[in-house]
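pinging the channel bc i need a second pair of eyes. not urgent but kinda urgent?? the chain im working w is below, pasted from the shared doc
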Amino acid sequence: MTPEELQAARDRVVPDVVTGGLRVLFCGINPSLTTAVTGHHFAHPGNRFWPVLHLSGFTPRRLQPSEQSELLGYGLGITNVVARATARADELSTDEYRAGGEALSAKVAELGPLWLAVVGVTAYRTAFGERRARIGPQERTVGGARVWALPNPSGLNAGWTVTTMAAEYARLRTAVDQGADPSAYDMRREA
């Protein structure tokens, strides 16, 4: 991928990987330029979403970004808080996050997933005005779905390793598999 291709992808919208009745709708912050060029979510080589998804038990093998449509067969999908592609999430405004939160609420209400998993607690805080939110299950629902804030799988998130992220994603998977109520989990978990 050339620098020119990446720059040309700025502000592109990447289609969601969704269908009605998902078990979990994973929600990224916004597409990277690599994702916008390829059309595949979490496509940047440094992004750890796909290995973490497998290690946490959501998928039986590590999928490649180009295999994203296979997620639907596992009852999983992908969307974003903000639809437009940028080089970095800090290029997004607070207003974009809030508008994205409103659009996400409507999308979730329409699609009816059991869980909305926002991969980035800061994005969740900003989009939904939940300043004190921490990683883990949230007390609120969005569009009728229970919400879990997960660590951002970006390679820039040095505070989480693949192993620690996979453990947190596995907590969500266990809750999904057991049909657990979010109140059964420690809501005070630190970000």
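so Helices lie at 3-8, 33-38, 49-55, 94-111, 121-128, 162-178. and The chain has a mean pLDDT of 91. — does that match what u expected or am i reading it wrong
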